[in-house]
Amino acid sequence: RDSVDCVYSEHFIEHLSLEHGRRLLADCRRVLAPGGVVRVSTPDLMALVRKYLEGDVQEWTDMGWSPQTPSDLLNEGMRNWGHLYVYDEAKLSAELTSAGFASVRRSRWGDSAHEPLRRLETRPDHGDLILEAQA
Q1: Looking at residue 90, what DSSP letter applies?
Q2: Is the CB of residue 47 less than 8 Å from the CB of residue 127?
Q3: pLDDT tens digits for 39-58?
């Protein structure tokens, strides 16, 4: 309890149910020292919806994913790879706040105001939702 300065999660929370995601965020808050920071990187539901509306099924071909239609894009993006709950910024921000975090803010891929959390992403940038929140 209160012993960790930073927690980083990349493309994990979307593999949990909403309830288990809430438990994960609560545990992150529990272990972070005062002023500690959690960084959560996850697919962005809004980016997925934008690609669907634009009819752009080519965004993720470098990852080996080539849906045939916009409908396939949206359905596969929500369900494939073991995804159970895909977040948009408003929902993930609200969940972080509910877990007891303050000053939730969006970060860019590889960038952070906190040195230990910079350049950690291992997956190519496809408009991921990356939020940092302080304990």
Answers
A1: H
A2: yes
A3: 999 999 999 999 999 999 99
